[in-house]
Amino acid sequence: xxxxxxxxxxxxxxxxxxxxxAAASGIDSFGLMEKAGASVAAAALRLHxxxxxxxxxxxxxxxGGDAYxxxxxxxxxxxxxxxxxxxxxxxxxxxAARARIGCALEGQGLDLxxxxxxxxxxxxxxxxxxxxxxSADVRALIERVTxxxxxxxxIDLPSGLDGRTGKVLGAAFRACNTITFMTRKPGHLLMPGRxxxxxxxxxxxxxxxxxxxxxxxxxxxxxxxxxxxSALPAGQLETHKYKRGHLVVFSGEADxxxxxxxxxxxxxKAGAGLxxxxxxxxxxxxxxxxxxxxxxxAIDDEADLGDWLSxxxxxxxxxxxxxxxxxxARGFVSALADRHLVLDADGISSFKxxxxxxxxxxxxxxRLVLTPHEGEFARLFPDIGGDDGLGxxxxxxxxxxxxxxxxxxxxxxxxxxxxxxxxxxNTNAPVWLATAxxxxxxxxxxxxxxxxxxxxxxxxxxxxxxxxxxGQRAGKGLTAEELAAEVLPL
Length: 490
Hints:
seven-stranded parallel sheet, elongated, NAD(P)HX epimerase activity, metal ion binding, YjeF_N_dom, EC 5.1.99.6
């Protein structure tokens, strides 16, 4: 795959437009299918040298055409090949029909396939273009293959997966390997698609990058430094702590101070010049016993906060970790409406009964970052979260537009979305990041980046990526304290 297309994710509709544009430019579309099918056959031989039989499943469209080409190449290589088709192969059109005619093998109906020891299934039924639940006969086939533990090599995407959302449409193959062409789709990265694809390889079949980029929407990509590094502040030899920003993290009561400290330490390690924990007077001693580089300031109520905010150097805040749910949180957020704010955990839950109250506070240039997990998202955006017709990216973007905020829709496939429609899918987080306090660390990292001047969306995306890298360094069995210790600045 061209490195210039590495981070780009194309929806199935966009990829279809790329194929059409390539053909319109004079590129031989059957030649592209020939290269695709040949790459699948080569991968099958490389990945499964001990296969006793390659079982090729051919669908009713161009994915099936790729499979017919792969079957021909495998047969010509001397491999034992059995071909099964969905529907009447005589009804194929265009390049797919040409591929079928060029394959000397006689096929059988899909329902006749019975797994045998030594089989490897090459799945060319649907690819990424499936838009509805699979039929009963396909579901039955998937169940037979799964129960027999037959290895599956998927062409483009395991059949039964939605290429845009990564959702299972009734039933789907679990592939050991997936071969796709030119670029990945969102469904390759979103769950459960990411797990069902197995090892993913992207083959360049000769479509010029300029055509791919011209047809791509360009608003969905993988979350990598290339997506936000241009927003990073330039390194300055002459600098001081205030130029690197002052981050304030609000603490909970005396028996709930640990979460704020983890956020504060993480913000400091992410590069903020100064970090202060704003705590109730009754919680000052509990915090002071554990802090050295982080400062403390007593804040009991909105009046105290209002007085402190007269210092205009205080521009960036984290509220939520261990803070407590209720009117006090809502009042503090209202006082911070003209500042940059990461709202996490208890801060989010404090607005569950009237989310619009929160959204109305943060209009204009986006300066709010929201970090909901699945349950918190459903409470803030019940209609969006409950819409089964939307994928995770669609939901995150819709929520970002409504809230005028950068949304971090957390999970194994965390999505970061901006009000302008941009979305990034994060892939670098190890599974062991799912531990108590991990979200507090993330909130602090994002706050530290906001304090240094990054826009809300870029701070959110960079923070999620740094969080994943810290998790990789900390290793399995990490605690939140160990995770915070592994945070490094950009």
